[in-house]
Amino acid sequence: MNEQTDIRELNERIRTESSFIDLINMEMQKVIVGQKHLVDSLLIGLLSGGHILLEGLPGLAKTLAIRTLADSIDAGFNRIQFTPDLLPADLIGTMVYSQRSEEFRVKKGPVFTNFVLADEINRSPAKVQSALLEAMQERQVTIGQETFNLDEPFLVLATQNPIEQEGTYPLPEAQVDRFMLKVLIDYPDMEEERLIVRENLQKTFPKASAVVRPEDILKARDVVKEVYMDEKIEKYILDIVFATRYPERYNLEKYKVMISYGGSPRASINLAAAAKAFAFIKRRGYVIPEDVRSVCYDVMRHRIGLTYEAEAENVSAEDILTAILDTVEVP
User: Fold this and answer.
1) Based on C-alpha coordinates, what's the Rg of the chain?
2) What's the CA gap between 208 and 115, in Å, rounded?
3) Which of 27, 49, 105, 202 could form a disulfide with 72 if both were Cys (CB 3.0 to 4.6 A apart)?
4) Exposed, middle or buried by CB within 10 Å (0-12, 13-18, 19+), for 8?
5) What fold, for 227-327?
6) What are the tens digits of pLDDT across the range 273-284?
């Protein structure tokens, strides 16, 4: 009875604490037409402190959505266009010699902000991509012999174009694993596109207003961690991740030759964190299996390595995840 009372109290508290989600959604809808899944994914990353990799064709409002989110939170925003000639110093900064003081000084790069948009991240070689690794994992940057902590909230939102292969560099597995979510963005439907055309032909393009402060986001992150997760849900998450490593244990023998590697422990952590954030967005104080299933594809699709057999049979990571979710017992 006491546990039920605690959950009821937590539910009420989260209903109150999550009211700003509606404000952000309203500001996002002023500028972004449709793309509900994209907006939810950005909020999940924001509430759980996870970085996001957005993959979609040009012109699907990836950059606009990220800029709008930054505007609605009154947070710092920097866009970095990745190109083949970009250098690590162009991201994190460098030491500059001052003739006046006759000493080297640190000139900070664009990574020193709240929201970093790494546009077309796969256009730069691994050396530049890895310059983001310390910032993404440790929330700090080392320039010369000095280490600087980054502002919170800090979020890297990277985009990549799935169709162009020429002049691109695949992201190293270590870096891909550090993205909490990989979100695939699709075309809007016809009615949504009609609204997009009308909006873009107006005299003035709408702009989001700041409705939340960065401190509110940091406070909300602490509340998200308090969202209740039952042991049965924890086991469900572990079963999904372990099925990507040992499919034969879950009656999925045919996928054993198709998976070169499964999800790491970071997959389990991120799946649990994303499920809690999704429950918070839905104004709930506890996680249900549907929350896990809703975020599973975005959290897991980039953490499953496919073999040549899978490519030969045209089996994707999504196909494997669908089979796992259909097979693993739901609590």
Assistant:
1) 21
2) 16
3) 27
4) exposed
5) Helicase, Ruva Protein; domain 3 (1.10.8)
6) 999 999 999 888
